[in-house]
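Re: the 200-residue chain
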Amino acid sequence: MKFIGVTGGVGAGKSTVLALLKDNFNCKVLLADEVAAELMTPGHDCFDRVVALKWPESVLDCQGKIDRLKMAKFMFADNSLREQVNDIVHPAVEQEVLNQVEAERERHNIEYFFFEAALLIECGYGKLVDEMWYVFATENIREKRLMESRGYSKERINNMMSCQRSDESFRANCQFVIDNSGSPEDTLAQITNYINSKGD
C-alpha cells in the first residue's frame, strides 16, 4: 500500500481530484480538516487542551461543543493563539493519520492511502508519505472557481493566494503534478497514466 500526500493551493480543485481517486482506484481518502474536526470533539485530548487555552471568551456553544467560527475569528486576530492551537492540533492529526495508515497496511485491503491537507509541506509530511502529489490549476481558473463556488471577491481571493506558497515551491516539493485546469476526464487520464507508468 502506498501512502500519498495530496496538496495544492486554494481553488485548485483538490476535492475534485479526491473524488476521482475515490471512484476509480482501490484506496482510502482522508482529509486533514475532517481528522482535525473529529479530534476537536468532546472526549478527545485535543478538545480539552484547546478549550483550556486563554480565549477572549468561551469558544463553546450551547451544546458544549467548540464553535469553529468563533474559534477561527479569535485565532485570526491573535497569532499567539493560532500558534498554540496549531501546536496542539497538528501533532494530534499527524498521529491519528499514521495510526490509520498503519491499520490499513495491516488489513492489506487497499492499494493507496491518500491524505489531503493544504499544509502538507509546511507540516513536514514529505518525510512521512511515500509520495507527494500537487494539484495545480492556473490562477485564472482558481479565481473563477472560487468566485462561482464560494462567492469570494477578487480581493479576498488575492489575499488568500498571496498567503500560500508559490507554484514553484509546490512543484519543488512534490513528485507528481496534476494539472487540474481542464475537465475531470483530463485529470483522471493524467492520474491513470502516472499510476500505470509506475507499474503499480
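Residues 79-107 form the longest helix (29 residues).
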